[in-house]
Design a protein that fits this description.
It is built from four helices and 35 strands. It folds into two domains: 114 residues, no CATH class; 194 residues, no CATH class. The chain has a 27-stranded parallel sheet that branches. Strands 24-27-30-32 form a four-stranded parallel sheet. It has a two-stranded parallel ribbon with strand order 31-33.
Length: 367
């Protein structure tokens, strides 16, 4: 009877947050759940969420400071509601659950072991590792930013990127992809069950690579935006392209100089050493669509040589840090990390020193 009499107080136990917050604040599991009705975290302040903390932002919470979520594998931090950051201070989420959460900031966002459901994350530079996203949106929206993501699963998400892309060993399932990438390195990912598996800019600056990815059951595997007259600095190699209505769609326009002259009249995009599901060259050409804009664009896609066998993606040492590809052409083997035993490395060093000594002695005798 005493326990039941005390139960309403247990249910109502919570911490209400309102008004101005300044200085270094730490919210704990013991004070949870935190109900943030309104307020602002002042400029220069820092809010730390300890493991097990639960926070509900009932209204938009304006933050001009830094936020650090310090969840653990045993005790995640749980956040719901809307958070608006008005500063350049960084945001870091570790072992955090985001439920119908909205975060918009001009700051950098770092997420490790984050589980997000129907949540929107909009920031400057995004660094995401070992996380899962169900629905919602991830957006990195400045031209000079970077969106780095590794070992993540994304299901039914909207992805928007303007700057540099570095994606490694992720799974994109039923995702809506929109990128105007400045440059990209995309390796070991899976893009499947989407209208467009991957949208990229073929005229991106820098060295661009699209290597060892798998495309499955997309209406269009790749939609590439190109500019006529620009050299396509891109390597599309050792990818697996499964069934699709159209393998590749090329979109673009003519680029003119200041005096009105066209800078070129054709675009050539190299797709070499890829597996095309045993399709013949004739079948492959029918799967490549030139999706013309207002002005006709002549696009040529180089698909030779083609891999005759499907590359096998295999995890090494139960980690996703490297990919083993049997029967890989030499050009890709050079990209893999060399593995040299300590004994052989010692022999090479000693041999190098001995040879250097003989060479110096030879020069001395000549002199």
């Amino acid at each position: 009877m005493g326990l039941f009499a005390f139960l309403p107080y247990l249910i109502l136990a919570q911490t209400l947050i309102t008004g101005v917050i300044e200085g270094n604040q730490t919210w704990t599991a013991a004070g949870s759940p935190y109900q943030v009705t309104d307020g602002i975290l002042k400029y220069g302040s820092k809010l730390t969420l300890e493991a097990g903390t639960k926070v509900a932002f009932k209204n938009e919470f304006a933050c001009a400071g830094a936020i650090l979520s310090k969840g653990t594998e045993q005790q995640n931090v749980i956040m719901t509601g809307k958070l608006s950051l008005k500063s350049k201070k960084n945001v870091e989420f570790n072992y955090t659950e985001l439920q119908n959460f909205y975060l918009e900031t001009d700051a950098d966002i770092e997420m490790n072991h984050v589980s997000a459901e129907e949540s929107v994350i909009i920031g400057y530079n995004l660094l995401v590792k070992d996380s899962e996203f169900q629905g919602g949106k991830l957006e990195s929206r400045a031209w000079i930013n970077q969106f780095s993501m590794e070992n993540c699963n994304l299901d039914g998400c909207e992805i928007a990127v303007s700057g540099k892309i570095i994606w490694k060993n992720n799974i994109f399932d039923r995702c809506n992809m929109q990128t105007g990438s400045e440059s990209y390195r995309i390796t070991g990912n899976t893009f499947k069950n989407a209208i467009v598996g991957l949208h990229i800019g073929g005229n991106s600056r820098g060295s661009n690579t699209l290597i060892s990815n798998t495309f499955e059951d997309n209406k269009t595997h790749i939609e590439m935006y190109v500019v006529e007259g620009y050299e396509q600095n891109i390597r599309v190699e050792n990818n697996i392209f499964g069934k699709a209505t159209s393998a590749i769609q090329i979109k673009g326009f003519r680029k003119t100089s200041r005096d009105g002259r066209h800078l070129g009249d054709k675009v050539s995009v190299p797709f070499r050493n890829n597996y095309w599901d045993n399709r013949s060259a004739t079948q492959l050409q029918t799967d490549i669509i030139d999706a013309e804009d207002d002005i006709k664009l002549v696009a040529t896609i180089v698909t030779e040589p083609q891999l005759k066998e499907k590359p096998v993606m295999k995890v090494i040492d139960n980690q996703k840090d490297r990919i083993a590809l049997p029967n890989v052409p030499p050009i890709l083997k050079q990209l893999q990390d060399p593995v040299i035993s300590p004994t052989i490395e010692w022999i090479l060093k000693v041999g190098g020193i001995v040879l250097l000594g003989f060479f110096i002695q030879y020069l001395t005798q000549k002199i």
